[in-house]
Model the fold of this input.
Amino acid sequence: MRPDGTNPAKGIERHKENSRKRYLRGDELQRLTAALAKYPDQRSADVIRMLMLLKTFLEKLALHEEDVVRIRHKLGE
Done:
């Protein structure tokens, strides 16, 4: 084992990743939904379904907030 407080990767620069958004296409979403329906552990499948719904809800909420800001700006508020 290596001594505490030592890091063999110290001084190595991390690879910078560019963030990106990717959404499932219709056919991919259908395949994922079918796979989740067949998955033996339905509790885990339900968690994934809930995360998908939550992500959709949060994105719609963010778009709504942007619309409210634009409308208020146009109204001079």
Summary: DSSP finds two helices and no strands in the chain. Residues 33 and 49 are 8 Å apart (CA to CA).
